[in-house]
Amino acid sequence: MRFQYDSIGERVMESKTTAAFSAADTHTLLGALDALGGVKGLDTLDLGCGDGHYTRLLARGGARRAVGVDGSPEMIHLARAETRAGDCDTAPIEYLVAEAAALPQLGPFDLATAVYLFNHAPDRTALHAVFRRIRANLRDGGRLLAIVPNAGAYPAVDWSPYGLRIVDRVPDGDAPLLKAQFLTEPSVDFEFREWAHADFAEAAVEAGFTTVGWQPNRTPPADATRDEEYWTAYRAWPVSSLMTCTA
Questions:
Q1: What 3-state DSSP class applies to 180?
Q2: What is the pLDDT of residues 218-238, one digit of tens each?
Q3: Do the domain assignments include residue 182?
Q4: Is residue 166 part of a domain?
Q5: Alpha-carbon gap, residue 180 to 120, rounded angstroms
């Protein structure tokens, strides 16, 4: 399913910088990294890196090595262009086109991040393969921090005020297919699988992770654009949660 990003890459980039759910995801992930003591001196791997947004955050945080991997050649092209134009001289950044289920041996790494990666696994076999390849690239004791969608919201919850709309759920194979839109200008269609958190946990344990945990989505401080009432409504049923695993 990653091929869809070859044609909507620039809209994905726009969503990361404008959508409220993306702001909450970044705040959540940065908070988790801070709780672990930061990334200074660590070898880091960013899976499903897209335009390299989180790969560059790892580099700016002082990572010794920052590697971004994505299955979409267009997203990797955008990532390299954004990195060249930015201020990421603090650590080497490498980008690689590769599917996570067939990830080569690139490590070992101390930390892996994955933001909306697992929900693109087309079936259970692929989902388990992704977790196995991540575990194989982590040192013993290494961490995986993953932002994953919360299942079961559609049709009960409208995420449109936060930059995302689910328009349909289609029963299909091992997990329903959700048809969605990034509410950029113009909006763009995309789709992903509605895996349950239990499916992710099962795959992580099977891959050899020793601990699996969950943390609720955190939201940025209120401001004039997004006040506390806005974020309170979002926290009642957020788009995502943070999955934490120890190798």
A1: strand
A2: 999 999 999 999 999 999 999
A3: no
A4: no
A5: 13
